[in-house]
Amino acid sequence: MENYRIALLTIGSVLAGVGALAFACELYLRLTAARLDVHNKHCYVTGGSQGLGKAIAKDLARRGAHVTIVARREPVLREALAEIRAVAVHPKSQHFVVADVTSHEDSVRAVGEAAEQQGRPVELLFAVAGVSNPGVFLEQDPGLLSDTMRLNYAGTLYTVHEVVKRMVAGGIEGRIVLVSSTLGFFGLVGYAGYCATKFAVRGLAEALRMELLPHNIAVHCYFPGTIFTPGYEVENRTKPQVTKDIEGPDGLTPEQCSRGLLRGLRRGEFAIATDPVSMLFRCATRGAMPNNNVVVDLFVAAIGWLALAPWRFYADRLVCHAVPKPKAE
Fold first, then answer.
1. Catalytic residue among 44, 158, 191, 194
2. What is the β-pairing status of strands 124-127 and 175-179?
3. Mean pLDDT, contiguous 10-residue spans, the chain (329 residues)
4. At what angle do helices 155-170 and 104-118 cross, to 10 degrees?
5. Does residue 194 have an active-site annotation?
6. Which uninterrupted H or E stretch holds 17?
7. CATH 3.40.50.300 at 35-322, yes or no
8. 198 in active site
9. What is the pTM of this model?
10. Of the residues 54, 58, 198, 239, which is catalytic?
11. Which residues belong to any copy of the Ketoreductase domain (predicted)?
């Protein structure tokens, strides 16, 4: 009986110590995070006409930000702008710019035009514009795969480069938020072209986080899972059934993702995940990315190391049974 009590006391002491350490790590993370203050700041959101971009723009406007949304279609931008102004603290400080972010020249022009409209340079950038074109790799046109890379990666790269260049020249200690995906952590059948683009965005974010430290420009990368947007409905038309089976029906609304993203920014996280699956992959495949809460991340990573091997076996089995082998000629 005495040994039983000693064992319980030992386990309780260890758990209490781990809990205290986790709390201390959380406290340190929050105290050392740069304060997220968007009030009267110029926030530039690419892909801001719908989905996640529009949700972010509305949340920023509610907090007093001067928001510029950027997209290609002016009618959709006008509709989004009306929604943003309806909830904004400063309705007259909400603007849009029509631009194709896959063009370097257009991206440079748009950033300059936004600064002129707002009367101040960009202080927070949210590079949200992106597209997913799922399908069986061998059946997809290489041109479509190139177009996906052009929007998801080059469209992010051009805007980030111009904004950062202006921030450094103006001595602005701003924030850069890039949007990758859960599929920036691992590859999945049906998403060959998309995964490559989101791995590229992750790599860009990690490199810029280090490179911009001397300029006090904070860099963050958001890794959302499934988001129920108009784009999601479109991508399901070409998505292989086996991909749908592995993904499952779970996901978040753009509004839920936006709130989670801003919460991660307030906590000072570099890699931000807003759903359990994304958090699991973030911790288990972190590489050299900074931890958020060290104790929690290590605990989740341990779960991932145990869970991901059987999950991979299950996913591989599904694919092998779902995708027919090509017949020999």
1. 194
2. parallel
3. 56 51 55 76 97 98 98 97 97 97 97 97 97 94 96 98 98 97 95 97 97 97 94 89 92 96 95 94 90 88 90 91 65
4. 50
5. yes
6. helix 2-32
7. no
8. yes
9. 0.89
10. 198
11. 41-225
